[in-house]
Amino acid sequence: MRAAQRRRSLAALVAALAVGALLTGCSNDDLAKQYTSGEDKNYIAGSGVTELKPAQRGKPVDFSGTTQDGATFSSKAARGKVLVVNFWYAGCPPCRAEASDLSSFATRYEDKGVEFIGVNTRDSAATTKAFDSEFAVSYPSILDADGGAVQLAFSGSMRPNATPTTFVIDRRGRIAARIAGDIAAQPSTLSTLIDSTLAEDD
C-alpha cells in the first residue's frame, strides 16, 4: 500500500516538473505570457521580426480571395512586385494603432513596385469598410473570416500566429520577412524590409 502511494506521489511530482519546465520554456513567448496571465487577447502587444535571405526562402505562397468591395485579389497577379500582406481585424487594438502607418507606406511605395493587401480574419465587408474610412486605409483587404483560406495558405513555418502580423513577399512570391505585432512601435523596420527586398536582384 505504501509502495503504491509512493509511486503515485512520484508520478505527480514528475508531472508537475514537466509542466513547470514547459511553462519555463515558453516564458519568452508573448502569447504564452498572455495565456499564463489569464488574458485572451489573441493579439501580440510586442513585436518580433524574422527576415529570410533569398537562399532560405521556401516556395511561393499562393492565395486569393474576395475583397470588401467584391473584387478578387490573387497573389499570382502580384508576381514581379514586392507584396506586403497584413493580417488584421477591426477590434484588435494594435491593428488600429498601426493602420495609419500602413496606409502611409502603401501610398509612399505605390509607384515603386510595391503592393499592399490586407487580410481581415474576422469581420464582414461593412465592418472592414467602416475601419478603412475611419483610418483612411487606401488598399483593399481580403475577407478571410469564412473558411480562412488565406490563413491556411500561410500555415507553413512562417505562419501568422497572432494578429496583427505583416509579411513582406518578394517578387517571386516567397516570404522574405515577417513582423509579428504592430508596426506602430517600429515603423522604420517595415520600410527597411521593403527597401531591402526591392533592392534584391530578381
Explained architecture:
There is one protein chain. Mean pLDDT is 82; it is low at 1-46. This protein folds into two domains: 2-36; 48-198, 3-Layer(aba) Sandwich (Glutaredoxin). The strands form two sheets. The protein has a six-stranded mixed beta sheet with strand order 1-8-7-4-5-6, with helices on one face. Helix content is 37%, strand content 19%. With 202 residues, it is α/β, with parallel strands linked by helices. A hairpin with a 5-residue loop joins strand 2 (64-66) and strand 3 (72-74). The chain is built from six helices and eight strands, in the order ααββββαβαβαββα. 32% of the residues are buried.
Summarize the helices and strands and which ones pair or pack.
Layout: H1 2-25, H2 30-36, E1 48-51, E2 64-66, E3 72-74, E4 82-88, H3 93-108, E5 114-120, H4 125-135, E6 141-143, H5 149-153, E7 165-169, E8 175-180, H6 187-198
Parallel strand pairs: 4-5, 5-6
Antiparallel strand pairs: 1-8, 2-3, 4-7, 7-8
Main beta sheet: strand number and arrangement?
A: 6 strands, mixed
Gyration radius (Cα, Å) is 20 Å
CATH architecture of the largest domain: 3-Layer(aba) Sandwich
**CATH level 3 topology of the largest domain:** Glutaredoxin
Portion of residues within helices: 25-40%
Mean pLDDT: 82
Terminal CA distance reads 73 Å
List the domain count as a whole number: 2
| CATH H-tier superfamily of the largest domain | Glutaredoxin
Number of helices: 6
CATH class of the largest domain: Alpha Beta
Shape: globular
Outline of the structure:
With 202 residues, the chain is an alpha/beta fold. It has helices at residues 2-25, 30-36, 93-108, 125-135, 149-153, 187-198, and strands at 48-51, 64-66, 72-74, 82-88, 114-120, 141-143, 165-169, 175-180.
